[in-house]
Write a structure and sequence with these properties.
Elements: H1 2-16, E1 26-29, H2 40-52, E2 60-65, H3 69-83, E3 90-95, H4 98-105
Parallel strand pairs: 1-2, 2-3
Helix pairs in contact: 1-2, 2-3
């Protein structure tokens, strides 16, 4: 979990430093990922970190592309847990291909 969480924190820090980030829609492509090493606790921690960075009252989208069945299950868990947070306005969807993700994100 620690390596993934560190990477996620670096990503959050980098992307939040960009002007206008709060109004960006995001597309994350994990279709090339061949292995997933994260626990339920790790997913919950990622949700907490991500939720803290949400800008109050700002709605945006996050499209996540995954192809392996295990990755789909883990990302769906993230989607459900994140969507259950009352403070989040980020809409999250899981996709298996870039075309569908791109169509939804724009």
């Amino acid at each position: 979990d620690a390596e993934l969480i560190e990477s996620f924190i670096r990503y959050q820090s980098d992307v939040r430093s960009k002007p206008g980030y709060d109004f960006y829609n995001e597309l994350v492509d994990f279709s090339e990922v061949s292995g997933v090493h994260v626990t339920v606790s790790g997913v919950k921690e990622l949700v907490e970190i991500a939720t803290r960075t949400d800008k109050k009252g700002v709605s945006s989208k996050l499209a996540i592309i995954v192809t392996s069945p295990l990755a789909v299950a883990i990302v769906r868990m993230y989607e459900i847990l994140r969507s259950a947070k009352p403070t989040t306005k980020k809409k999250i969807r899981v996709f298996k291909n870039l075309a569908d993700a791109y169509e939804w994100i724009i």
